[in-house]
Specification:
The structure is a homodimer. Chain A is built from 24 helices and 29 strands. Chain A is of the alpha/beta class and about 700 residues long. Chain A starts with 6 loop residues before the first helix and ends with a strand. At the A-B interface, helix 5, helix 11, helix 15 and helix 16 of A face helix 5, helix 11, helix 15 and helix 16 of B.
Chain lengths: ~700, ~700
């Protein structure tokens, strides 16, 4: 559905409150009272079958009785009456429903919730909720919620999946001096979800930045698409990323794919800036709602004190924006605006003597200079200088530079009440200001990170065309027909092969003679492995023999493998023995996938062996994955230099590896209805131009 | 010098201000004014040759004129007069000098500074400064500084190496609601340094916690000893840890030993809690000044909202205190104090309906229960409950539990003004309270970390007795006599060997015949390497041949190595060729050392090869290192499971490895006057009970 449809819900010209009450202990009273107090200028229609007047407003017995049009209806009646109310609202032509009432999906009442949504959709109505606090907008002067007051005005919108937190954050906007234009409680997301709101808020003129408090997204792909398309910054704080209670997994990849990693990958791919905690959510909302992205890495820090300058320099390195010295000409000009013992390098240290003029002149010069991509101005309160004057000097310089809105600036004042007031003034004048230098640096680093992500998203995506889905499905069907939900290595390699992954040649031998014949066809040396759907850990079962050099060895191995397998599991269903090309040694990597419950097919890449097992040095991407993204995966693991070539070794074939990752990702997208988890492990990567080989393969199917 | 000597300086009964002034623009005026305003109850003696009265106080022409005793003198006269003043003060019998005056070591005037200190010491006086803001104490009602006012009262002391930051933090105590008992500006540390103050503050009854803002420590060992002995928590924020401008190093270990890592190791070994940033410095000071250490890992979180509970759970994992479910009996009792849809697991979710009673009852029960080692109480402000009532319920429960002071508690309220006021009340009642759940968890995790470190420090240290320092010094002397500041591999191995490190047997062959003879003595296969002080990178020069199996091979290798060496560097001074036992393959690790300019001899340990080169997976300890500490080094690197045995491999000989680390550490302590940097790389570690071998050795000497 189009975002336009949400206008009636989010920006109503008239609003009805179903369940409006004269009893101050009822939410139906609070909501009417809040709408009045907020100063809403549209029509307000309390609806209550028993009342004539509520809080000085005419009350209506039913929706039908209301004379004019009703854009939005706030529903506060108990859950058992909601379906009836929705039907009435539909008949009245209401556009959107704000269902505050709880007692739906969150307590297991999913059927009622679905019925309510279906009914609303019959009439083309959208639902916010149920189980929400409501929605608040400063520009609409509308507090359609039971949160006590409209938030401190700001330019961003905050959407929260926790109602309690929304109320607390509403009140905290005043103590933290970080305002919001809108607060939206999203509750059960029975209909309108994060994606819908991102899409709508992106078009809303009163919103400059979209902040989300997320506990869990239902449709990860829809969310990613909406966030990717958004032209405004999207910030997310994802709660619930600890391992506390994570489920067991059947594959290597599955065991490594925690919520933190998959959400992290999805946010990055969708250009969503991730907040680290509640304070950071406010801090980033302030910066991203007021300042433009930072389009290069040249950060300049201006300070009046060594201490805060050093702390900011440390923070810049920590937040991936290490300082560089300014060019000579910049240094020379800056030298004019500080005493001889100041420093014009970076941080630019104006010394504790710096007042209005020096702050003004150096800020104006630096912010105007092409070399600077972003600026952090620090002030450490002294007994000799007035914080408000410094703030005014900074602001005037920024205005005069003509660069406000073109590159970002953040400020930090460390001090007492006077500094607090100066920072408040700066924020009111749209300059983000923070009480500690690292916070100002963290905020500007988020503006840089946002630009980097958007840059990557704008890259064209290439497509993979070598797939043969039918062959893959045939191999899967064979396992399904056999009543299995995992593929044998041979079947898994057939699937991989159908997507162009360079697997080692592998045949199934059902007898010793078979084995000899196939071994000769492949050519010695070979590898032999047990093929049994009941033996997943082949090595543990003594079911793997490598480097078999001749016919005698092959016969020997065949017997030993079968004997071992039977000893390991007497009733194992044994398909035979895989006869396999022995791939030459190469750098071991692992490719793998999970079918994430939120984001669907998701790729993992890492170095193999102990790197994955011990160091867990892996990276994720929601599939599909372009070749460029795959190259980025290859370069972002800690062990990346190993593939680039260390200790005199030749670089590995990263181009072919990136193509393989991309093809693998295409495979898990195409077969997302079938594949639950998979691993290609190890994959042996050779020198540049020499490609790679998938030596082992595992596919776990979705349970059907 | 004993800490007692500082009493006169830090807790003076009378104070003189040399350079006191009637001119309000002078520091000499400000200091007198501040001392009066602060309410100081001792005698105040302004000293000024020209004035009779300053700010209503009788002024003295000179120190000698003052009738009574003078404990401390604040010096604000220009630097050129300071030496004279110090002499006068000594004659007067002043105990301590607070030298605010700048223009000493910080601008290169080190000689003057040293002269002043020597003069003061002649009279047994101690110096705080020069180049400081002064010192402030709430319990003494003494603001002997030019910072505008005494800080908000608190229980901790803050010592700052940055004067500007001290003033700003002074003012920020009020806006952040984190008070301090004392603020001490330490400046150039010409005499009194961090160690002296830690020692003195540890005995000071009005101080419960010692917080340090450090830019650089002069004598790292002295600091560590003072911090180790302290019975009160010491917190440090170390500024200046970014790589920006780090120097080049001659060894592997040198290149890995940045300020962040060596300071981090030293803090950990000394039991110093490290603050991450300025906000964290305040947050930790609050918690560690008010609450006892957390003596176990069982953290319980009580909350009224899922949102903040989930954020706190994530934070607990991030800060190394992952939540466990409470035992059944605890859960059953808790169930009595919450609605049916609450949760008694952990976090304990009382739901948004929770008011005074539920908070009181559950807090009292949990905090009294033996299972809980620490408690975090969260409150998310609602429209239905009163923050101050909740705060009072929590405080009453804690009092009634009888466990306050025995285990720690922190609190977080998320909300507006009412929550701020409730938190302020809690802090006034000695319960640390924070505006976000992760901050409360971070604070309590620091109390846990503090206990863990103190536990380790209390372990007895064993000593190593196998060293033969004379042999080591002889090998070093050989190199020195040769005009070199690096040892050849053979010399380095002699040094290592003298400290019991199991080096591969290595002899120097000066001719082909020599080589054959020595090879036979060692037994084939052997390794041969060029020995030349001019060729440090032997492999690059084609100067290494391994796995030489017989006499012919040995002759061949001898010739090839010499030819290659000459081709590599025609004028290289070649000592000969090392004939060396070929150590069997083992797990490669690296041991190494730097002689840190602050902390002296410092050990490094890590896995070898790509682990150290690419992943930089190494850990540091200031030497000496006990065997237990060495075992901890072995277990704390990310690759630790590799030594513990992965993928079916036997565990490596970690006991012998820990002994070797410990001996190595002893060696660099004993030879700290000689050794600048060193590496044992690779060291091959074998299966348990089979020891290890140092295959290559490098020692760089201190330049003399």
């Amino acid at each position: 559905m189009e975002s336009k449809v949400l206008d009636g819900l989010m920006r109503p010209k008239s609003i009805a409150i179903i369940g409006a009450s004269t009893d101050p202990t009822k939410i139906g009273y609070t909501v009417v009272n809040n709408i009045i107090k907020g100063g809403y200028e549209g029509s307000i229609y309390p609806v209550n079958p028993k009342a004539d007047e509520i809080l000085g407003l005419k009350s209506y017995k039913s929706l039908q009785e209301i004379p004019g049009e009703v854009d939005a209806a706030v529903i506060t009646v108990p859950s058992k009456f909601v379906l009836e109310v929705v039907d009435e609202a539909g008949k009245k032509g209401v556009k959107g429903l704000i269902i505050i009432t709880s007692g739906f999906g969150e307590v297991g009442n999913k059927e009622l919730e679905a019925t309510v949504v279906a009914k609303a959709h019959e009439y083309g109505m959208r639902i916010l909720g149920p189980n929400i606090v409501g929605t608040l907008s400063n520009s609409e002067k509308l507090n359609a919620s039971f949160a006590p007051l409209l938030p401190l005005p700001g330019k961003g919108a905050l959407v929260s999946q926790s109602g309690a937190l929304l109320i607390a954050m509403d009140m905290a906007t005043f103590t933290r001096r970080v305002g919001f234009e809108k607060l939206i409680s999203i509750g059960n997301m029975s209909d309108v979800d994060f994606a819908d709101l991102v899409e709508w808020l992106d078009k809303d003129e009163t919103t400059s930045c979209i902040t989300l408090y997320i506990e869990g997204i239902k449709d990860g792909r829809k969310f990613m698409n909406a966030a990717k398309k958004a032209t405004k910054p999207v910030i997310a704080l994802k709660a619930g990323v600890s391992a506390h209670g994570a489920a067991a997994a059947a594959s290597h990849t599955g065991s490594l794919a925690g919520a933190a990693k998959v959400y992290g990958a999805a946010f990055q791919q969708a250009g969503v800036v991730q907040a680290t905690d509640l304070g950071n959510l406010f801090d980033l909302s302030l910066a991203l709602s007021l300042q433009p992205p930072m389009k290069g890495d040249n950060l300049v820090i201006i300070t009046n004190g060594g201490g805060v300058g050093v702390l900011a320099t440390d923070a810049a390195e920590r937040f991936d924006l290490p300082l560089k010295f300014a060019p000579k000409d910049v240094q020379e000009e800056l030298k004019k605006h500080m005493p001889v013992f100041g420093s014009a390098k970076n941080p630019v240290d104006l010394t504790g003597m710096a007042g209005y003029d020096w702050y003004h002149d150096s800020t104006k010069f630096v912010f105007s200079h092409d070399w600077a991509d972003g600026l952090v101005v620090l002030y450490c309160e002294t007994a000799m200088t007035e914080p408000m004057e410094i703030a005014q000097g900074i602001k005037k310089a920024l205005d005069e530079s003509g660069m406000l809105g073109k590159k970002p600036v953040t400020v930090s004042f460390v001090g007492g009440d006077k500094s607090e007031k100066a920072m408040q003034w700066l924020v009111e004048n749209e300059i983000p200001a923070y009480g500690a230098p690292d916070l100002a640096v963290h905020a500007i680093s988020a503006l840089r990170e946002y630009d980097r992500m958007k840059e990557i998203i704008s890259e064209p995506e290439e497509t993979i065309t070598t797939a043969n889905k039918e062959i893959a499905l045939k191999a899967i069907k064979a396992a399904r027909d056999d009543g299995r939900d995992s593929l044998t290595e041979i079947e898994a390699k057939q699937v991989f092969s159908a997507y162009g992954l360079p697997v080692t040649t592998t045949y199934l031998a059902k007898s010793e003679e078979d084995a000899i014949k196939l071994a000769k066809e492949i050519g010695f040396p070979i590898v032999m492995k047990i093929v049994s759907p009941d033996i997943l850990h082949k090595s543990d079962a003594g079911g793997v023999k490598v480097n078999i050099k001749d016919e005698a060895g092959c016969r020997d191995a065949y017997k030993t493998i079968l004997t071992n397998a039977k000893a390991y599991k007497a009733d194992a269903n044994i398909h035979g023995v895989a006869i396999q090309e022995m791939a030459p040694w190469g750098t071991e990597v692992i490719l793998g996938s999970v079918n994430d419950s939120t984001f669907g097919p998701t790729m993992m890449f890492g170095l193999g062996g102990i790197f994955v097992e011990v160091l867990k040095d892996v990276t994720f991407r929601v599939a599909p994955v372009s070749k460029k993204s795959a190259l980025r995966m290859i370069s972002e693991i800690r062990g990346a230099p190993i593939l680039a070539g260390v200790r005199g070794e030749a670089p590995r074939d990263r181009v072919k590896l990136s193509e393989t990752i991309s093809s693998y990702a295409q495979m898990i997208v195409d077969l997302s209805e079938e594949i639950s988890e998979s691993d290609a492990n190890p994959v042996l990567v050779y020198e540049e131009g020499k490609g790679l080989k998938v030596a082992d393969a595992r596919i776990i199917l979705k349970k059907k």
